[in-house]
Structure formats: structure tokens, C-alpha cells
Amino acid sequence: MVVFDGEKKRLVISSCKVDDGKISVEKDQFEVMLNPSECSLEQDIAYNKIEALGQIGSDQKFCSIKPETLSFKIVLDGTGAVPYPSGGGALSVKELIKKLDDIVSKYDGEKHEPNIVQVLWGSLIFYGRMSSKKIEYTMYKPSGEPLRASVSLGFESYLSREEEALRANKSSPDLTHGVEFKAGDSLPLLCYRIYKDASYYAEVARANNIVNFRQIEPGTRIWFPPLR
Q1: How many CB atoms neighbour CB 48 within 10 A?
Q2: DSSP per-residue letters across 183-210
């Protein structure tokens, strides 16, 4: 679900650069003309299924968590009825597709792989690479030049090697965890969830310079250090 904070915002796709595992958003971006009517986020978990002859069920063994996928459909209008958000007059469908391709299909010649992009829409922030694109032309000029197109886009999430390792072991108490404190939470309760021992709350409070663990504001980011 995508949540907005009052002001209407358009979905924006921006190109990104990755250095030493850190992602930075560049200036090149594509702002949609009309927001998607729906947006889909999916994630699959793979299991190895061991089946024996005559067995009624199967023993599922965890294999891996597959990358998240994001998909949505946007409309490109070249009639002039819907101006491009950045101004500068109406763009043709051909020009709009090129502008979009320069972001989502850009090939990194140094790394020999497609460009990483950021998809930003309201509270949704997604980093990944385009995995699919389908263009359906829905309106033409008498000359055959397209006037409107519907573009279905699919993206697969990007994780650095460090992030991937942490996600694969996020339940381990031997790794550092970051948790956003929410209303109704308590530090001992969070310690129990992560360490299975509420008594570590004093150590966590010291690590985060928390003076009074009973008065933590919701939204505070708390780091839970590895067990010693």
C-alpha cells in the first residue's frame, strides 16, 4: 500500500550510482505524467521440497529469500492534454519513451550491467533494476505516429553484498540491528524480541546514549549491538 502525506505527489524514477556499496541518487529523473492506478510489491521465498515415494506431504526446507519485485503501469500522453510535469511544452510519445529509457534502460559500461534506479512515490522508496517493460500503443495520428502509450514496468530490488548478508541473517543476535521505536514498544520488550532476553535493555540504552529507557519517543531509531 502506498500512503501519501496530504500533498499530491507524482511517481518519480531516478538514476542512481553505487560506490563501495552505498547508493546515491543522481539528478537524472523521469516524473510520470499520471500516477499509476495501482502498484504491486511482491516477495517470494524459495524452499527445497524433499519428497519420498508414497509420502502424503513434503518436507519443506528453507532455501532463500528472493529479491522483492515492484510493478506498475504508467500512461504516456503525446496529445498535449496532459503536459509533462517539468514543463517546457508537450513531448511526443517517442520523446517520452526515450526520456524514460534513458533512466530505466541505461547501461553502465564500466560495470557491464543495467543502471540502478530509485522509484519514489509518497512513502514508497524502492531501489532496483528494471526487469521488464511492455509498451502498448493505444492512440495514433492518421500518419501512424503514436499519440498515447501504456507502459508496464517491472523492477527487481537491489541489495549490496553487506545488506544481503544482514538480511539473510537478520534474526541472528550476533548482528547489529536497527529498529524504529513505535508507540506501545518498550526497550525490554524489544530486547526480548531480538536477544530472547529482556535484561539486555541497560546495555542497549548505554549503546544508544538513552538516559531514561521509559521515555523513548516513537520514531526514535535504536541500534541493538551484537552480543558479547
Answers
A1: 11
A2: TT--HHHHHHHHHS-GGGHHHHHHHTT-
What is the spatial distance between Cα 123 and Cα 28, in angstroms, rounded to a whole number? 21
Classified as helix, coil or strand, 112 is coil
Q: Which three cell numbers stand for residue 225?
A: 549491538
CA distance 77 to 91: 8
Residue 162's Cβ-count burial label (10 Å; 0-12, 13-18, 19+) is exposed
**Per-residue pLDDT tens digits for 1-51:** 333 344 458 899 999 888 776 778 888 899 999 999 999 989 887 776 656
Model-level pTM?
0.64
CA nearest to 225, candidates 118, 214, 116, 209? 209
| Terminal-to-terminal C-alpha distance of the chain | 39
Specify the 3-state DSSP secondary structure of 156.
strand
Is pLDDT of 98 > 80? yes
Q: How far apart are CA 183 and CA 171, in angstroms?
A: 22
